[in-house]
Write a structure and sequence with these properties.
Layout: H1 21-28, H2 35-44, E1 46-50, E2 55-57, E3 65-71, E4 74-79, E5 85-91, E6 96-97, H3 100-105, E7 112-115, E8 119-125, H4 126-135, H5 137-153, H6 155-164, H7 167-175, H8 178-183, H9 186-193, H10 197-206
Antiparallel strand pairs: 1-8, 2-7, 3-6, 3-8, 4-5, 4-7
Length: 209
């Protein structure tokens, strides 16, 4: 959604030559892609600049796209009954972002994705990407490696941490990514930690921050 409340119609973005070296370099860290595969990917990708607070995906809509953050910062969040945003993840430069369960199950997303800063995003449709996976073995191997690392290796420890660690311990862990913390507002950090801004202020005071 944009500031006028109108959905951003990505399908109407005209095709253009895009520079996607960052995307290919990142994919190659999981599995090297051939020149043919890269060219096929280039045919389905496009870029879009999102203003701060633009919504890429609104909860209740079915996800259709994968996103790669070329520059900027995205937030992945749900909304409680009071309309308060509850952030689950933040995506910096060189990160892949999507409502994975919505894409796989083709059901309405329970999460929204918004631009926390002005962001340049490389976008590719999930249906066309799935076709490429079936046609290009190296792309399929990339996808498997990405899912294994990000939805198994990283996700399981994160779920344990959220259930076992205190808000103070989770905040200390978040502080390890100091560059990200500096880009977030206090209420966004508090939301991510599952506490109120007042509670975060108390923790920061205890830590002399």
């Amino acid at each position: 959604m944009n500031k006028c409340g109108k959905a951003l119609c990505l399908s109407r973005i005209p095709k253009q030559t895009i520079y996607m070296d960052e995307l290919i370099d990142k994919m190659n860290t999981y599995h090297y892609l051939s020149a043919d595969t890269v060219e096929a990917l280039r045919d389905i990708c496009f870029t879009k600049i999102f203003k701060k607070n633009d919504i890429l995906l609104r909860a209740g809509d079915t996800a259709r796209y994968y996103y790669f953050v070329k520059s900027g910062l995205l937030g992945y969040y749900s909304t409680d009954e009071n309309g308060t945003s509850i952030y689950k993840l933040f995506f910096e430069e060189n990160s892949f972002c999507a409502s994975a369960s919505s894409l796989v199950e083709e059901t309405p997303s329970t999460f929204s994705i918004d631009a926390l800063e002005a962001s340049e995003i490389i976008i590719y449709p999930s249906d066309k990407f799935r076709k490429l996976i079936a046609e290009h073995h190296d792309l399929a191997l990339f996808h498997i490696a990405y899912l294994e690392k990000n939805w198994v290796v990283k996700k399981e420890p994160l779920e344990i941490i959220l259930k076992s660690e205190s808000a103070k311990q989770r905040y200390l862990t978040l502080l390890e990514n100091s560059k990200l913390v500096k880009r977030l507002k206090q209420h966004q950090i508090a939301s991510y930690l599952g506490i109120t801004p007042t509670q975060l202020s108390r923790i920061r005071k205890e830590l002399n921050l």
